[in-house]
Amino acid sequence: MTQNRTRIFLFTLTAMLGFLMLAPQLASAQEAPRIPANSRAERERASDAAYNKDQPEKAVPGAKRDSAHVVEEPHADDEITPADSEVAIDSAAFDAITTFDPAKVRGIARPWQIYYQEPASPVQAHLEGLHDGIMVVITLITLLVLGLLIYVCVRFRAKRNPNPQRFAHNTVIEVLWTLVPILILIGIGIPSVRAHFQYTNNENIISNPDMTLKVTGHQWYWSYEYPEHGIAFDSNIVPEDQLNEGEPRLLMVDNPVVVPVGKVVRVQTTSADVIHNFAMPAMGLKQDVVPGRLNETWFKATQEGIYFGQCSELCGKYHGFMPIMFYVVSEEEFDLWVRGAKEKFATGEHLQLASLHQ
Questions:
Q1: Which of 282, 296, 331, 355 has the greatest count of CB atoms below 10 A from its CB?
Q2: pLDDT at position 344, please?
Q3: What pLDDT is attached to residue 13?
Q4: Residue 4: its pLDDT value, please?
Q5: How far apart are alpha carbons 201 and 29 in whole angstroms?
Q6: pLDDT of the residue at 9
Q7: Per CATH, which fold does 65-121+209-351 belong to?
């Protein structure tokens, strides 16, 4: 008895000492990491506040919310040269491309929606057709099994068959219920594999794109690069208290992706920290974003408009705050956006390293 009490005392003492040693680490681990979503905006507000601290307050006509800069209309007293006028026009047109308009939203979940979003790419249209075909097969199988169950319950109930037949095997039935499911699976498998290799993983299309979009996942925001155009920027969620009227919460970003309609876009994905998933339902995009690995897929937008997606892989505390936003525009508008984006993101101040927020 004495030895047991001694062992219990030593075990309790050891556990208490271990807990005291781990307590500081547990406390530090519980501290919430800084959300990078507002980091750039916070820096800009602090910089603007420091600069304007001693300046007289005045209204800025035509000022527009933007995470990278504020566009101001020229004052009447300022001398405007032809070059300045052209720059002002281009700047206004550039901002208009990514101005949110609820009427342009196509790819978004609707209240009481029970089906897919309207397809905006050949991939998603084909996948929906495949889904509809398989649903017909599943429905027929379900009705057949339900009918057989009802028939058996009624026809072979105990009251109607007090002396049931006693047999254990039927060769014809056993052959049928083995071959028929095999044929059904083959009928489903062939178009499924064909869809995978002809659409979602078509090497011929991926190797010959019109442009490339590189996506890097971070905790908890996205970084985008346009290698052919020399553009790179981060995309963070817009906090709810900064949303304008009509903008959807948890889906708006400060710097959306802009792509031209009717062009094949190769999407390359990788991660800087943990596994994410780049998903855009209307485009048929759903690609794992894995650290140390470069995955590829593609899409071809068939309709202009605004499309939303989200990270679809549980990636940590703020997994639900990694929205994706696409603006699909005409080729002329895309060329204009590229010219403006090269100036907007030229300084490199938009770049963020994940290690800075860990």
A1: 282
A2: 85
A3: 56
A4: 58
A5: 40
A6: 60
A7: Immunoglobulin-like (2.60.40)
Cα separation, 52 vs 57, whole angstroms: 8
Total-model pTM: 0.68
Which whole-number Å values give the CA distances from 91 to 60, 177, 228, 236, in the listed order?
A: 17, 68, 22, 22
**Chain segment 273-316, per-residue pLDDT in tens:** 999 999 999 999 999 999 999 999 999 999 999 999 999 999 99
* CA-wise closest residue to 326 among 279, 268, 277: 279
Average pLDDT estimate for 130-154: 94
Q: Residue 112, preceding bond cis, omega within 30 degrees?
A: no
At how many degrees (to 10) do helices 82-97 and 331-344 cross? 110
Question: Is pLDDT of 181 > 50?
Answer: yes
**Cα–Cα distances in Å, from 336 out to 60, 329, 331, 340?**
26, 10, 9, 6
What's the average model confidence in pLDDT over 176-204?
Answer: 88
Nearest to 90 by CA among 292, 338, 266, 305: 338
- Main-chain dihedrals φ then ψ at residue 241, nearest 5 degrees: -75, -5
